[in-house]
Structures are given as C-alpha cells and as structure tokens.
Amino acid sequence: MVIFLINIAMILLWPVVLEGVNAQQAKKKYCVLCTMQIILLLALRGENVGNDTSNYLAFFDNVSINPWYLIQSHKFEVGFKYFVKGITLITDNRRFFMIITATVTTIPIGIFIYRNSKLPLISFLMFSTMEFLLFHFTGLRQTLAFVFVLKSYEYLQKNTFFKFLLWIFIAASFHKTALVFLIAYPIKQIKVKRLYLYSGGLILAVTCKKQIMDMLVKYFFQDYILLETSAYTRIFIGLLTLGVLVIFNRRRVLNENEKILMDMLFLANIFFVLAIANSAAARAGRYFFFFIIILIPEFIMSFSRKEERVIMFMLICLISIILMLYLFPRNGLVKLPYELMDISFR
To answer: Where are the domains of the chain?
Structure first.
C-alpha cells in the first residue's frame, strides 16, 4: 500500500508546488505530472504485479520469437495482435514492452482529464483510488480498447454517429467487450425524463438479469468463467452515487455534457446489477463507470457558493482515500505488496 499512498500524496501536493503559476498553465502542468507518475507506476512494476501481466508478457515473448502465421490463430483480438507485433519490430525486451504499454494507455487518460475535468485533482484522485488504476495493471487489452472508447466519447457528445461507430469498432479490435459502449448512443437520444428511464432500466436489469446475461455471454463473454459477482461494494457505490446525484439535481437543468455523464453512470449501474448474475458484466460496466471521475467534478462545481464547493471537494477527497484503504487490500486485480521491478514495497 505504501507506493499507492505515495501516489495519492503526490496528487494532493502537486497543486502546492504549482502555486503561483498561471491557472491554465498550472492545469496543464498538473495533468502532465500526474500522468507521468502513473506511467512510472505501471512501467516500472514487477512482472507479477497484475493478475494477467505475466500472460501478456508471455504473449509478447511468443510474438517475438514465432512466425506471424502461428500468432494469427491465437484467441486475442486482431488489433491487439497487430499492436504487439508492432512493438516486437522495435524491441523484444519485456521492460520496454511494459514502458510502451504504460505510456500509450495512460497519456490518453491524462489528456481526457485535462480537456474534460473541471477539477483534475479530483479526477486523478478518483482514478487512483477506485480500482481504475489497479485495472490498468492487469487488463491490458481492455485498457487499450478503452483508449479508443474515450475517443468515441468526443463524437458521442457531437452526435456524430459514424465516427462514434468507427472508434468503437477499432476499440473492439483490442477487446470485443467495447461493443457494449454502442448502447450509449441510443440512450443519449431517448427524450424520456431521466428519473423514469433510470428507474425503469434498473428494474428491468434486476428482474431480467439472467436472460440479459445469457444473451451477453453468447456474444461477448464466451471466454469468461461464469460466476456470480462478489463485487457488491462497486454496485453499492454506483447506485448510491446515481441516487444522490439524481436527488441533488432534481431542480437543476443539466447541461448536455452533464446529461451524458449521468447516462454513463446509469449504464454502469445496469451492468453492475447484471454482474450479480455473472461477474463478466462488471467488465462491461467499467467502460461507463470510468466517467464518474469527470461527473463528480461537474457535481462539485454546480454548487453556487464557494463554501459549499470547498466542503464537497474535501468530502470527496476523504471518501476517495477511505475507499482506497478499504478496496485495495481486498481487490482481486493486483496482489499486494506492489513490487517495483526487483524491490518489494509492503
């Protein structure tokens, strides 16, 4: 846990270091610094940090030494196979592979936070405390797919369907579960009052979760073991956050971006509820749940009084750190302690 606490401390302290810098420049430098420290955490970790890290390293070795026709039959998606093949043309060194993948999966997130978050500190803090960072350590294919999902979000905002569709298909070439993000587009077009949409959708998910999951397993999750979820904490957090935001915003007219972000949280909750029947649905939920790190800053900045914004800011920081202290020792993604190459941090 020590290395993750250091990461959090730096996220909280960088604004002090940047005090006195022009606001826009300070935001840019802050996002660069936080992105760089996350890249270092990922790139310099031990080869056993992350449940699937060793499998991806073995695949990288396999691509490095075997002819391409042998690799083509592998179960991994074609985009990911070509991505790894491209890296092997540059290097066959495992550490360089980890540095490259850490960089290409983290920089787009830093850019996304810089462009979309009203409070980058909260966004980076939530990213680092709510298991998003832990998933980065292990879910390489899905993390690469998510990079392209983030790009598709730009076209979701602009209602540019074919460009949205294109980026989702590219994402699916790295991890086919990215196709579930297609549902975000029709959901955005629905003009029903959100309280009714969210309530009806959640009731449908609860009552028909087995039937819905049978269909999703057929098309998206054939390769995953079918288990009931134990991730009730994530379900509780998602539903509680959605409920609180709906109540707080019931008298506000949300802007278009806030509506989309609320829809993302709603869809995350749908998949988390479905995960009660099959834990594989939680993977799909991650595509949508990520946007909570942009939604919460929007919520904080919606308060008109500065005192209220400060209180909410401090409360979210406190809750995020408490969540990390609770979730990380119990996570199923990365076995602690964190290992920095050949050095162990307990």
So the answer is: 1-176, 190-302
